[in-house]
Structures are given as C-alpha cells and as structure tokens.
Design brief:
elongated, mainly alpha, single chain
C-alpha cells in the first residue's frame, strides 16, 4: 500500500485511514530510532577501543549484545505497527 493510497483513504474514511497512516509512521520511526541507536553504539565502541585497545574483545561482545537488543525492540515495534495496519484494512 503506497503512501498516496493511505492518504486518500484518510480523506475517505478518517478513522481507518489515519490509523493506518499512524501505524506506518510508527514503523518508520522505529526504523529511524534503531538506526540512530546502532550508530551511537558503533561510535561509542570505536571510541572505547581507541582508548583501550586491550579491552577490544570485551567491548565488541557488549556492543553485539546491545545491538541485538536494539534490533529486537525495533523489529517488535515494526511488527506491532504492521499488525495494526493489517487489522484495520
């Protein structure tokens, strides 16, 4: 479903169209938030390794665990938004 179709539906049936638009917006915000979070995780890990190269293995392990948790939350948010949009259409 394209954005134009969602906006046209919003005009025709305000409750359903706006809910689908909100779900699409929520999925997009979840993806942007995950991208920003992963960028900060990677940048901070690189700074940590640059300051203490001997701790690179510990930093990398923690970075991967936290990145996986961020991705899981973003995926969960996107799935919830998609379920909302499919339930209403």
């Amino acid at each position: 479903m394209s954005l134009l179709q969602v906006l046209l539906q919003a005009g025709a049936d305000s409750t359903r169209g706006l809910a689908v638009f909100g779900a699409a917006l929520g999925a997009g915000l979840a993806a942007i938030g995950a991208g920003l979070g992963l960028g900060r995780i990677g940048g901070s890990a690189l700074e940590g390794v640059a300051r203490q190269p001997e701790a690179a293995n510990k930093i990398q392990t923690m970075m991967i665990i936290i990145a996986a948790l961020v991705e899981a939350v973003a995926l969960f948010a996107a799935v919830i938004c998609l379920l909302i949009s499919f339930k209403l259409v």
